[in-house]
Design a protein that fits this description.
162 residues; globular
Length: 162
């Protein structure tokens, strides 16, 4: 989470809503907290927790939909619950997905290809998560590429990977 937030902070100046990106990056995986795990799908649990606290609608939705969560929710039969939170499909949303997709589980900086391979390896290609990635990969990679295009155009370099 700290490394996701650090990358968000680094690229935030390239976005109109950089502050929202940083907040969403800090909170995006809060649903992994055992005390919040009700559906056991962390984007949904996190978004509902933030919603119950009265947090801004956009923040809740960014958390609910982070990194193509709807596609995984559909495989877990909670697609309708996640779909209640709209995907804003903006540069901030792309940037949150990007920050998540270039950060490994120990905070290491990875290319999106290495990150996808790392996840597949950890869960197994035949697992639900592996099947989710097969469906989500094009959207995840596109969000990463759009984000790199935006911040490099604003003069922010790419991070050192690996
Ligand atoms: Fe997550």
């Amino acid at each position: 989470m700290q490394a996701v937030a650090a990358e968000a902070r680094r690229i935030a100046p390239a976005l109109d809503d950089g502050e929202l990106l940083v907040t969403a990056a800090v909170l995006h995986d809060i649903g992994y907290a055992p005390t919040l795990a009700t559906t056991m799908f962390h984007p949904l649990d996190g978004a509902r927790f933030l919603q119950a606290l009265g947090m801004p609608t956009r923040l809740c939705a960014l958390v609910a939909r982070h990194s193509c969560a709807l596609k995984e929710a559909e495989l877990r039969d909670c697609g309708a619950d996640v779909a209640e939170f709209p995907d804003e499909e903006t540069p901030v949303r792309d940037a949150l997905w990007y920050c998540d997709m270039v950060t490994g589980p120990d905070g290491q900086r990875l290319t999106v290809d290495d990150r996808l391979a790392e996840i597949r390896n950890r869960y197994g290609p035949e697992s639900l998560v592996g099947r989710f990635l097969d469906v989500a990969q094009p959207e995840l990679v596109a969000a990463v590429e759009r984000t790199i295009g935006r911040y490099t155009a604003a003069g922010i370099p790419q991070p050192k990977y690996g």
